Amino acid sequence: MAFKLGTSFAERYFCFLAILVSIFAAPLRAQTSGEIDAHLFSSSAPSLSLCGQSADVCLLNSAEQSQDASNPNHADSSNSRRQDDWVSAWARKVDEARAGQPHFVSPIVTTHVMLVQQYRYDMSWQQDPSGGNVTSNYGASRGLEIIPTTRFEVGIFPPGYFVHQSKSPDGFGDLSWQVKFRAFSATEGKGDYFVGLFLGGSFATGTSPNGQGHSVLSPTFAAAKGLGPVAIQGTIGANLPVTGANILGRAIVFNTAVDYRIKGKIWPMLEQNSIFWSGGTLDGKKEVFLTPGLVLGSFPLAERLHLSIGGGVQIAATQFHQYNHRWILSVRLPF
Q1: Is the CB of residue 269 less than 8 Å from the CB of residue 108?
Q2: Which of 19, 122, 152, 251 has the smallest number of Cβ neighbours within 10 A?
Q3: What are the tens digits of pLDDT across the range 272-291?
Q4: What is the pTM of this model?
Q5: In the chain, how many H helices and how many E strands?
């Protein structure tokens, strides 16, 4: 009888230790995975009926649960699943936004009227009015464009870097940004149009003569219409200096791009880019450019990543112009 009592005491003692180990292992697992285990006392700790088994079985089950709870691979896989779910949900939002609008290519100069998710890098080389000096712009106020929801796009455009053939100092320009809102749209076969409101601007991060020296806001109305293989995209907006309006003046900016789709990969286009100034040093002046161009793509690279390449040249069409010709090379990476 004494032996049986000793065995019963040992079973209870080891079972009690197993319960303590399981209870303290569960919070450690919760801390590792970043979540609170809702079954802390129901699933992690062995039930009282388990103590009716032998002490060896009780300890073995408890040890297996503790080892499973403290395994960092489970926390890693949980974090990975959450990340994959977030990325997948974001990708679905992007696909939904693209599926609800026409599929026109981005023009060379004119702001793309549609919501777009891509990284874009442009380079340009422009001649001064006399044609004697060339100014290079690496970046050209293009950058990362993201679609966070089905109706919005957010763009951040790092400052371009200016290189002058003249004695003007080289340096970075201004940091720019833009937010697009899609008001109405329909895809091909269901209207083939887009109407939206944009708000952009720039911060005076660059030094003269590469930056404007003042922050500027640029509200814009945008619309597009497809007519078979032809697409027309237009924007009309204003450049409104936050400060320094007496120097920069206020400007109305009007752009139109017409492109023609050939087999879905070749897009010849023609743009007109106009600016009209009111106030400032350019008060009453206007500037119009015609821009023939060509965009190729997009071509798949890897999974969602694609590549488009475009180029064109702005040609001054008015007597007043701040530069004569401007050659543009554009690389886009939609994803």
Answers
A1: yes
A2: 152
A3: 999 999 999 999 999 999 99
A4: 0.75
A5: 4, 15
